[in-house]
Amino acid sequence: MIQILNKILSRTTKVIPIPKYCLPSISKALIVAPHMDDDIVGCGGTIHRIGQAGAEVSVLYLTNGCRGNSNMQYDEQLGNVRRLEAEKAFHYITGERFKNLFYMDICDECVSKHLEETDDLKKILMKDEYDAIFVPYVLDIHPDHRAANYLLTNVLEKIDKKITIYFYEVWVPLIPNLIVDITASFSEKCNAMKMHESQMATKNYIKMISCLNGYRANFADRDEMLYAEAFYKCSIDEYIQIISEVRQGLVY
Ligand SMILES: [Zn+2]
Fold it and tell me: For residues 231 and 168, is the Cβ–Cβ distance under 8 A?
């Protein structure tokens, strides 16, 4: 873990790495969301902005959400409710310009048991020419977020594609090389977050994203930037190398 942090830091000549502040140019994006709401928490503002700029956005939800309650008890009905909430929020945040919503229906906290089930994700990636994949930061505290990267790597190693990977933040801040100003889209991000009513009942996610996105904007020293999302952007080759090094440390 220390090695990978050193590697990221050593890619700059500055004492403190300075991220780029811009909206990336994206035509077709796939958001890999281990849980139904990670897409909005981690990159809802950016999804809204690239959608407005004409990008086609799809999402893959890895887990079925059946344990997304405060006591982590299995509740099939909750899974159905979360799916409807996620669809409503994703349709809204993309401005109805979404392409596909995909599901793998894995039980919550079990993604690491399905790392060899690569067929569905491989089909998704082979069917469309994505130029961007968004995935949670590999050093996140949630095991499903780390395992999502191991699953994605198992697929990317088998296909020959040129896609830019964007790590996004959920529970752990990352060392960013890209900051997207989402001030103009923050109200839409909050509206989409509120559509996840079952999750809003368990935690004040509006407060969480306000703090995280406000903290990110504050680094820019630009008065007009109030909210921002942070990413680590890299090529597939670099991504596979990063994940390989993390896996050698057996961070499951
Ligand atoms: Zn999650």
Answer: yes
Distance 198 CA to ligand 1 centre (A): 14
Structural domains in the chain plus CATH codes = 2-248 (3.40.50.10320)
| 239 CA → ligand 1 middle, Å | 20
Per-residue model confidence as pLDDT tens digits over 34-71:
999 999 999 999 999 999 999 999 999 999 887 766 66
Q: How many of the other CB atoms lie within 10 Å of CB of 175?
A: 18
CA 108 to centroid of ligand 1, rounded, Å: 9
Q: Is the pLDDT of residue 88 over 90?
A: yes
How many angstroms is it from 129 CA to the middle of ligand 1? 26
222 C-alpha to center of ligand 1: Å? 30
